[in-house]
Amino acid sequence: MSDNSMGEKLRVTVFGQSHGPAVGCVIEGYPAGRLIDLERVRAFMARRAPGQNAWSSPRKEADEPEILSGLNERGLTCGAPITAVIRSTNTKSQDYEALRRVPRPGHADYTALCRYGPAWDNRGGGNFSARLTAPLCFAGALALQLLEEKGVKVCAHIARIGPVRDAKPDPARPALPLYAPGAFPVIDADAGERMRQAIEEARQNLDSVDGEVRCIAVGLPAGLGGPYFGGLEGRLAQALFGIPAVKGLEFGETQPFGSENNDAFCVENGVVRTNTNHAGGILGGISTGMPICFTVRLKPTPSIGKPQQSVDLETMEETTLSIRGRHDPCVAPRAVPVVEAVTALVLADLLL
Fold first, then answer.
1. Where in the sequence is the domain holding 298, given as residue range(s)?
2. What counts of helices (H) and strands (E) characterise the chain?
3. Which of 95, 145, 309, 326 is most solvent-facing, going by the fewest CB within 10 Å?
4. Distance (Å) of CA 330 to CA 126, 191, 217, 222, 336
C-alpha cells in the first residue's frame, strides 16, 4: 500500500481533493469479461452521498460516476484499468479561508501543513476529506459484485452512536441482510430512532457524536491470509484505518477466560465449523471459514460549531475558533457503506 493506493492483485488508487473539480479512482486487476450492474453501483454509492437527511452534511452532491476507461462498447470489463471520476458541483471554499492560519482541533489541518507546507489545499479538508470515500465506494461496489460470484456477502450496520447501541447479530450464524434496503442501517428500529435523536441533539448543541460500525462477511473459505504481517486481520486493518475518522478496530469479541473465549470445533453439513465465533472468523491471521466479524470505532466529527481553543500560526498566539461550513454531526451512518466497500476490496484482492 501507499498513501493513496491499496491492494495487490486488485489495486485501487484514489485521487482528488474535496473542493477540486472531481475525485476519482483507478482500479487495476479487475477481471475481464464481467458485466457491471451500474444501477446497483449507483444505489450503493447513494447510501454514502451527502445532503440526503438530517444526520448528514447538507452539502448536496450527485456522486454520479463517470467511467473513463476499463469497459468495452458492450459494457464489459476489458482488462484495462477502470478509471472513474465523480465531479464536485457544490463547494463553498470560502468557509475554509480562516483555517489556513488557525487549524481545527481534531482535524488533519495542522499535521497536513507540517507534512506538505503552505501549498497544501485545505479547502474542505483537501486530500484528507471523506469526500474521497465516494470513489472508494465506487470501487467497493465493483468488488462486491465480484465477491457475489464467489458466494461471499458483506454487510455492515451501525453498532453504536453515542450511548445508544444496536442489537447484535449472531456472529457465528448471522441472518443477512441485517436491515431492510433504504432503511436507517440498524437491526433494531427503536435503537435507530434513539440514535437519530442523539445525532440531532448533538447538532442542536453545535457538537458532534461518535459511533461504531460492525461489519460481517459470510461465505469466505477457510485458509485465506497468513501469519504475522501477511495476516487477514492486518490486511483489513491497514485498509480500514485509511477511512477518515476510524480510530479503533476489534475483530470478534474477546471473552475473559480461555474456556469461554475458545470457539469449540464442530462438523456442520460435512464441513468443519465452530459453535461460537469469538475469534471473528480469523485464527493465526487466516480465515476459518466462519463469518468475518469486526467493529470499527469512529471519532466524533472534529468540525463543530462550539468555540474551541486553537492557535494562530502566523502570530503564534492562542485563539478561539468556531467552525462554519457543512459537516456531518455523526459520521457513522454514512460510514456503513464505506466500511463495506473497503472490506469487499480487501477480500476480493485476497480471493484473486
1. 5-351
2. 7, 16
3. 309
4. 20, 16, 24, 36, 12
CB-side exposure of 189: number of CA atoms within 13 Å?
Answer: 4
| CATH number of domain containing 173 | 3.60.150.10
Lookup: cell for 26: 483507478
Q: Cell numbers for 15, please give them.
A: 485521487
Grid cell, residue 273, equals: 465449523
Indicate if the pLDDT at residue 1 is higher than 70. no
Please say if the pLDDT value at position 55 is more than 60.
no
| DSSP H or E run through 110 | helix 109-116
Query: β-strands 153-161, 11-16: how paired?
Result: unpaired
- For the chain, the domain total comes to 1
The per-residue pLDDT for range 197-239, each reduced to its tens digit, is: 999 999 999 999 999 999 999 999 999 999 999 899 999 999 9
> What's the Cα-to-Cα distance from 150 to each of 12, 43, 54, 296, 351, rounded to whole Å?
20, 21, 37, 25, 9
Residue type, position 25, single letter: C
DSSP state, residue 345: H
Give CA–CA dist 138/130, Å, rounded: 14
Instruction: For residue 50, name the pLDDT band (cuts at 50, 70, 90).
Output: confident
Residue 141: pLDDT over 90: yes
Q: Phi and psi dihedrals of 292, rounded to 5? A: -80, 120
* DSSP structure string for 116-165: HGGG---GGGGGGSGGGHHHHHHHHHHHHHHHHHTT-EEEEEEEEETTEE
Residue among 48, 8, 27, 23 nearest 142 (CA): 27
What is the predicted pLDDT for the residue at 280?
Answer: 98
Q: How far apart are the first and last CA of the chain?
A: 17
Burial class (CB in 10 A: 0-12, 13-18, 19+), 258: exposed
Judging by beta carbons within 10 Å of its beta carbon (0-12, 13-18, 19+), is residue 271 exposed, middle or buried? Answer: exposed
